[in-house]
Every structure is written in C-alpha cells, then in structure tokens.
Amino acid sequence: MGASLPQVGRRTIEALLATHASGLGDRRLVLVHGRYSAGAPEEFTVRTGEETRRVRVSHQASVLGILEEWTKHRDKAAGGDLLVVTTGVDDGQIGWDLRGQAVRRQTLTVENAEIVMQRFGAAGLDPRMYDEGWLLEALLDAEPSQGWKRAGSVLTRDAALRALVVARLGLGNGDDEAGPASGAVVDLDALLTWSRTPAGPLRFAELDPTERDELKKWLGETTGPAAPVLMSLAETGRGQDAMPLGLLGAVLRDQAASPDVVLAVGGLFGQVMPRRTELQSFTEAVEGALIRWIGEARHNAAARARVFAVLDRADQLAEGAGLTPALESNRFLPSSFTAQLRHVTAAARTSPAAGEAALAELNAHMLARLNTDRVGVAEMAVRIARWLALPRPAVTSVAAGVQGQAGDWGWADRALAVLWAGDPDGDTATGEDLRALYEAARERRERLDEEFARRLASWTPNATALHPGGCLVVENVLAEAVRPLAGDTAPLVLVLDGMSSAVAAQLGEEVEREGWTEVVPREAGSEEEPQRMAAVSMLPSVTEVSRASLLTGTAVKGGQAKESSGFAAFWRQRRLDALLFHKAGIEGGAGSFLSEEIMAALASDAVVGVVLNTIDDALDKGQQGRRTQWSLGDVTYLRELLSAAKGYGRPVVLVADHGHVLERGASEGPVGDEGTGPGSARWRTGAVKDGEVQLSGPRVLEGGGTIVAPWREDIRYTGRRAGYHGGASLAEVTVPLLVLIPDRDLVPKGWEALPREQAVPQWWAPHKGGPPEAVALQETPRKPKRGKPKEQPAGEGLFAAADLVAPAADDAAPATLGERVIASEVYEAQKEYVRKAPESKVVAAVIDALAGAGGTMSPAALAGAISATGRVRRNIDGFIATVQRLLNIEGYPVLGFIDAGHTVKLDVTLLRDQFFPKEKT
C-alpha cells in the first residue's frame, strides 16, 4: 500500500490548507491520502484566512497510529495548532468517531494538477501536463521558498519546465528567482556556466532518474543536441569536466582520426560517449561559450581565471589520455598555443614566408588575444627573419649610418631586445629558435656597427658644427630642427636622456595613436623620400658632453647650470624667452602632477625645455632588468607633458642626447689597458684593442680630444649595469629626433607630415596585396619623388604602369578598381547627391592606394597618394568625410576611420558589393 501512495510535500499541505481554509473553523485535524516526503519539515506555520497557525505533520499507516497522534495532539497542543496526518488507511477503516474530528470529515485527496495551478496563480493548465505525474510532483517539490512567480491565465508545459529547470539547477540569482516570469535564461551558455559551479551538477545528479531523463529531453528540444550530452556528464559526476571534455572532442572533427585517438576520447567520456554528431554539436557549443568568455577575459581577471580553469583542465585530461600531439592544431588549448608558437619560431629560421604562414595560424588561436606578449615575441621573430632575408646593408657614411639606424636598424634593435628576453612563459624549444635568430641578426648588426665606427673615426677629425659632413650634429638640433617651429606658438623640447632609436620607434608609434602627427623638413628639389630625423651625438656619447651641447647649441661640456643658462642664451639671441626644467622643477605639489612653474611656462610664449631622465636612470641603476618595451607611461611625466602641450597647441620635439646599448650578459667584465683608467663604462684612453676605435677631433670633448670607444656592445670598462652609453656603436651615437604637431593643419612651412608607412621600415610589416585589378605594387605606398619627372619602368612608383591614369580611347576599359568605380552607373548616381564632390580621378586614386596597401593607410600616407593627382588636401579628415558620402551607399561602411581616427580603412569586398552587385567575388 505504502509504495502506491502519492508523495505529499510541505507545499502540497500548504495548498490543501489554503484550499480548505474556509472549512477549517475550530477543527484541528486534517487527514490526507498520501505519504509525507522524507526529510520534509514536520512542523511549520501557515497562513489560513486571517490567522497564522502552527502545523505538525505525521505519517501513520494504521488506525491506531492515527488515533494515538490525534489524542496526543488534542491533549498537549495549543488550541489553534493543526495536526496533519498523511495515511493510506481507507475512510471505512478509520471510523466515524475519528473522521468526525477531521476537516470535511474525510481523508482529503491530493489533486496535484489543481495544486500546481493554485501555486502558479493560473486559471488553467496545459492539457499535456495532466498525464505527466512526474512533472506535477516535481513542481510541487521544487517550489522556491517565496513561491512560484505568477504564470498568467494558463500555465503552459514549456513555462512549467523552464521554471522547474531554473529551480532544480539553481540558475539565475537563486531559488527566489525561479518561475515562468523570472529573468533567468535557460540556454546552452547558461548551462555551460552552471556546469562550472561547485554544487550545480550535483543538484542534477541527485534528482529522480525519471525527472533527469525528462529534463534532458526537454533541454535537448529547446537548446539543441549539446544539452543532453552536458546533462549526461553532470549526472555521472563529470559536470565540472564537461567543458574541458567538449574541447577535447574537437579532435574527432578529423574524419581520418586514428583508432587510438577515437578510443582515447571514448575513454574520457566513458558511458556517456555520445554519437559523433552530438559530440560535434557539444564541442561547438563549448567553443562558442569560450570565445565569449575569452572576449570578457581580456580586461577582467576573474573572467581570465574562469577561462584558464577550463583550458588547463582540458590540457591535463589530454595529456593523461595521450591526446596532446593530436590536438596541436586546436584553437583553444594552452598546449596547442605553445606548439604553434614553436612552429612560428622554427619556421622563421627557415624562411620569412614560412614564418608568416605559421604566425597567421598562431594569430587565429583564441588565446592569442590573451597572450599578446607571447604573440609579440613570435611577430618579432618573423620580422627579424624578414630583415635577415634582405640584402646585407652597408654603412657608406656617418650620415647614412645614423639615418639607417633611425629608420631601419634601430627597429631591428627593438626586435632583438624582445628575442633576447625570450618567451615570457619560458618555453625551452621556443627559446632555442629565438636564440638562433638573435645570434644571426646580432652578427649582422655587429658588422654594421664596425663599419659605422670606421666611418666615424674617419669623419671625426674634421667634423664641426659648421662643417658636419652632411650630418645633423646634436649641437645644431636647436637651430635646424627646433627653431623653424617657433612660429605663432613656441615649441616644447622634451629631452629623453638615453633614448635609443629602438625606444624612439616605440614611442613614435604611441604618440601617433594619441593624435600627434610627426613632421620632417621638406627639401626643395630633393628626390629623397622623407624620413625620420636623426643626429650625431657629441663624443663620447655621454650625458655631460652630449646633452649640454644639445641644449646650448654649441660643443660644450657641463652640467645642469650650464645647460639652463646656455638654453636661455641660445633663444635670447633669437629674441625669444626660454626656460629649461630639470627633474627637481617638474614635480607638482598636492593635487597637481606638474609643477605650477612648468604649467605657467607652457601657458606663456616662451620656448620650454624639459629633461626627463627615466631611461638613463633605469639603465644606470639597473631598474630596467629584462624590459623589452618602453611606452609613454613608462617615462615619468612624458604623457602629462604631451597632454599639456597639446592643450596649448604647442609643437613638441622629442629628442635624445645619446642612445644606449643593453647588457646582454656576454661581457666577461671590465677590460682596459693597465695604467689607463676608463672615462666611463664605454670609453677610455690608451691603445686600441679588438672591437674598439680611436676617435679624435674638435667634437671629442673628453680625453684631451682623443678617446678609445668600443663598437662591440659586449665591451665595458666598469661594473655591470642594465645598459651603457659612451661608445661608438650606432645605437649609442645616433640621436633620434621626433618633431610632433598636435594638428595636421599646423604643419610648418617647408615641412611635411611623415606618414606612419614611411616612418616604419618595409620589412617590419608583412606584405599586403590587393586584388589583381587593384594597385599592383606590393610595397608600402610612398609619396612620389620630387624634382624633374622621369619615365618609370612598369611596376615602379606609386602605381604600376597598368594602373596609371592615362589618356585613352573612349572605348578603353578602366584598368584599376578605382577607375571601374568612378566609371560605374552607381557612382554617377551617387555623385548627384554630393555637393562639391572631389574630382573623379582623385577618388579613384584614393581607392587604388588603399586597395594596394591592403585596405588600410595612415591619413598622412593617403594624403601623399592623393598628391599624385595634383590635389593635396591639408584637411584630410574633411576630405575623407566627403569621399565617404560618395562610397558609403545607404550607410554601409565602405570607407572610414579606425584606430581612433589614425587609420583610414577601405572595405574592398563591401565596395564591390555596392558598386558591382552582379559580380561574384
């Protein structure tokens, strides 16, 4: 009898008492047909009508048991307390004398459907639910402490099941949120998140088998075939491993997977092993959720920990099952990321093309966005491979040497610093490949340093500020690079003591992203491409002589006092006031980062100079360690000074006094001649040895005009530090110089913007090629050379010969993508709606230049491309806005700015769709 009794829970009793509240009166006994659920509370209170009454529940299987419970309750309980007895005894056996004391004088029958409707506040029930006793019982058993949320007039089966799933699994913000109208989402992403909770899967595993099966079935129908796989893993105690297992299931996407691999995956899933199609759906669901989680993890430490908890566990399971080698191409696992990183560095040693292909695969890995430092190492390895594949460069003069260092070899130094530091995660195999690339590139750099040192030794005896031998020398920087900027607004000169060309390359990229435009002098009639400025330091390349010479405009040795007086005197001779600030005068008081004095100076008409020692101090005091990157935020006060200068509309000159070389651990210690002490870490007096040169001349301000300086970076004459300067290497003698303006409309007369594409060596970025009918040239677009035009062979210049706009017969077909666009009917119709539209050939040049550059260019580079048409626009932003109205039909983003307005992008595919809709791409 007991086995066939319906289960009665607390909620059922509360519902029965609410239903019969009007008939309770003074009666204190309620008989219910059923069995009270084990573990349910035996005493509780309920609200019946206008009063609250205490309820005690007891299950009795005999008339005698019922009578004893009633007698005890009647004699000992308070007058308002209720006794609820659940039983399977028939009314005929109980007898009238006992039944007469009970509500309605009979045993009450539980109608789960009616009670469910009552608990949900519904007037009707989905007819299908009357035949699903398990569902009705589960709904009564799972009701949250605050009750179900109201369901409306009819409680549908889907609404009931959704509410049940939320309550049983603990989805949403807790049990009190369960119900058809709750905000909890029941989808695959929510279920996967739930599977990672400590108690969630256990709650499901403890449910009745029938309920588990039905819930799995419903979840499969509503959320997809992946849900039953997940829930099956949860009910077998593998819920926490469900997502890691789903990732490993990706190995079976390969139809040619070996039997060993299939068996290994089957062993991991055990008795849950789904069909291949179900496993594929589950794997795709897990990957989709992880993609979203990884997107959140980029700026959220907790989200990052959640991602790696799954991925690290997946790697552990794969290693235990012997699946790691088969998963090397996986897009999610940390082990596969490391394997693909190894492929990049190994391939880079083979050829640049192989390295680029492997790098593209690494960038497609989902962890690339969370391991930007490791991806950066791989990018540097490929860049060095491209540099090594170029013809070996040569130093033909001192001027060519410093220019090459600022525009090319300094970028190689930047990459070499990263390779030397190695993989941030310390992978040994990757480190071996990085070491091989580093050593090959260092050998080339040493040859350049040696050639430069020989040229420097020959140049130094006769070089002066008046006769610099074609060089910009550091003592002429104020006159030749800063004085032309002192127009309506005086410039700010920021001296970054010890800044090398490698550091300048990094800072130059960052200031460009923050809205500054680099400019360089334009030489009339010159056929040379514009390039970043660079000067030759004073010798030796140390602060006491080189910085003083820079700031005073004359070859001199001295400290801060001489620098300040000399700086003011230089500008006084040019009828301008000037103030120079060193470290002690920069820091502000409470509430301000910069001092009042420096802010007042910036607000005035005076030329302002500021010396920032962060880089030199870091090298001297060993604070740099294994640092491979310098940013604006790393140089104290730099970002704040740039921001203040921009606020006042000041042009800015970022200039070093000398560069530096880094300690690589290759030196055996101080070296030098006995009896001749070193002047500093990188210069001395005495006889020349291997790796050194002797420098003599009017610009040598130490050692009585003659010193010995090493060109090899592993030679030092003092104790070990993080870095050194004073030697004759390119990195030390080259003084990088960045002239920045806050607005493109403020380019000084006789100067021009230096596009990002021309500041960066071509080997730094991979080849970008457009479609065949676009511009044929694969190199970074350059401005046309100045001077007398000359005939160019096919394929040279900004456009290939086939792409040049030339007079042709009326029936000649357009040759380039840009010409096809401007010749189209769509373009002609669109032009009617744009007032003062640019000439069609200008628009064609814009399209072709962007297509040939792979779809993106800096605004300055694009302005250079437009100049080929004879229509150079200073207001490039306004020009692009006009071209957008011509190309962005119906608002589709064919042309626009990205990267906070610092890059122009052309979507070639979308352009074709808009102007040639009948063509298939």
What would your notes on this structure say?
Helix content is 43%, strand content 11%. Strands 10, 11, 12, 13, 14, 15, 22 and 23 form an 8-stranded mixed β-sheet that branches. Strands 4-5-6-2-7 form a 5-stranded mixed β-sheet, with helices on both faces. Strands 24-26-25 form a 3-stranded antiparallel β-sheet. The two termini are 75 Å apart.
Outline of the structure:
The chain contains 35 helices and 26 strands. By secondary structure, it is of the alpha/beta class. The strands form eight sheets. Strands 10, 11, 12, 13, 14, 15, 22 and 23 form an eight-stranded mixed β-sheet that branches. A five-stranded mixed β-sheet has the order 4-5-6-2-7, with helices on both faces. It has a three-stranded antiparallel β-sheet with strand order 24-26-25.
Describe how the helices and strands are arranged:
Layout: E1 7-8, H1 10-19, E2 29-33, E3 35-36, E4 43-48, E5 51-59, H2 63-76, E6 82-87, H3 91-94, H4 96-99, E7 108-109, H5 112-120, E8 124-125, H6 133-141, E9 154-155, H7 157-169, H8 188-195, H9 200-205, H10 209-223, H11 226-235, H12 242-248, H13 259-269, H14 276-297, H15 301-321, H16 334-350, H17 352-364, H18 372-389, H19 398-421, H20 428-459, H21 477-482, E10 492-496, H22 501-513, E11 517-521, E12 533-536, H23 543-552, H24 560-572, E13 578-581, H25 596-603, E14 607-612, H26 614-620, H27 638-647, E15 652-655, E16 661-662, E17 678-680, E18 683-684, E19 692-696, E20 706-710, E21 723-724, H28 730-733, E22 734-741, E23 751-753, H29 756-759, H30 817-822, H31 825-831, H32 840-852, E24 856-857, H33 859-866, H34 876-887, E25 895-898, E26 903-906, H35 908-915
Helix pairs in contact: 5-6, 8-11, 10-11, 11-14, 12-14, 12-15, 14-15, 16-17, 16-18, 16-20, 17-18, 18-19, 18-20, 19-20, 19-22, 23-24
